[in-house]
Amino acid sequence: MVDLNFKYKNLIEKLRAEINVSPDLSIVLGSGLGDFANGVDLKVSIPTSELPDYPKSTVSGHEGFIHLAELHSKNILLFQGRIHFYEGYKLSECILPAFVSHVLNSPKLLLTNAAGGINKTFKPGDLMLAKSFNSFKIWKELTEIFGVPTLEQKNLSLNIPSASFNRQIKAAAEKENIELKDGVYWINKGPMYETPAEIRMYEKLGNDAVGMSTVHEAIFAGVHGIDVASISCITNMAAGILNQKLSHTEVIETADLVKEKFESLVKRIIKEI
Ligand code: HPA
Using CA positions, which residue lies closest to atom 6 of ligand 1? Predict the structure, then answer.
């Protein structure tokens, strides 16, 4: 078991010294929402490179900052830059945004991400609200942090994503006239994109989109009583669905095209919560 309070003691101290309010909502800005921080009133901006023990983000499009922002009279904690398994980081590092949200008493966490569309009715540029998460063994790996579960913990049932938070998000999308698909998000830890055969398997297993983040962050936050939701920007159709190769450039380009719609939705969500 990893004692996160001990492991990140210095980081927590520094954060608490800089951010002395509890956020109303925390948001992990995935591909496509990286510029979101530029359009809001930033009260505090901390480069994660100045935070002791905070992993360095190595992916282009993922700046490393934690901001405290204000919008619609709400305090919002923004994570600009995510920590991924495929960068070689451990689970106890990948869940840091969820852990920090917990430490700062955020009641809600919105996880945003880029994902490949498995559901053939989706198209690049769509936004998908996760109605459920799926993986082969992320839950088992989380025992690295939570310890070996006792019988009661094994029977723990998680309300992730949060049904009530999802309802608020759907209402916000309607008000903003933004179409929001819903579906099941599957995590592939990467670093490689999937093979067409894997995608056919994931489709048969009932998944609608695939990405390389989010599920462990959601479980960690959910276990700590935070209401979690996830919105995916479908940046490409998953491998083999269309007759073309996948590339990180395509992911960044589509995310860029959807940026305005995604930002309007997130701003509306902040207004409505
Ligand atoms: N697969 C996995 N992760 C992704 C994809 C994909 O097709 N697109 C964006 N992130």
Answer: 116
Indicate if the pLDDT at residue 236 is higher than 90: yes
Which of 38, 37, 48, 41 shows the shortest CA–CA distance to 8?
Answer: 48
Contact status, residue 112 vs residue 28, Cβ threshold 8 Å: yes
With 0-12 / 13-18 / 19 or more C-beta atoms within 10 angstroms meaning exposed / middle / buried, residue 173 is: buried
Write the Ramachandran bin of 177: left for phi over 0, alpha for psi from -120 to 50, otherwise beta. left
**Segment 241-265 mean pLDDT:** 88
Cα 85 to middle of ligand 1, angstroms: 14
For the question of whether the overall pTM of this predicted structure is more than 0.70, the answer is: yes
> What residues line ligand 1, using a CB cutoff of 6 Å?
114-116, 188, 193-194, 210-212, 235-236, 238, 246, 251
Specify the CATH class of 4-272 in words: alpha beta
Residues 6/12/13/19 CA torsion (nearest 10 deg): -170
23 pLDDT exceeds 90? yes
Please report, for the chain, the start and end positions of each structural domain, with discontinuous segments joined by +: 4-272
In the prediction, which pLDDT does 110 show?
Answer: 98
* CA 149 to centroid of ligand 1, rounded, Å: 31
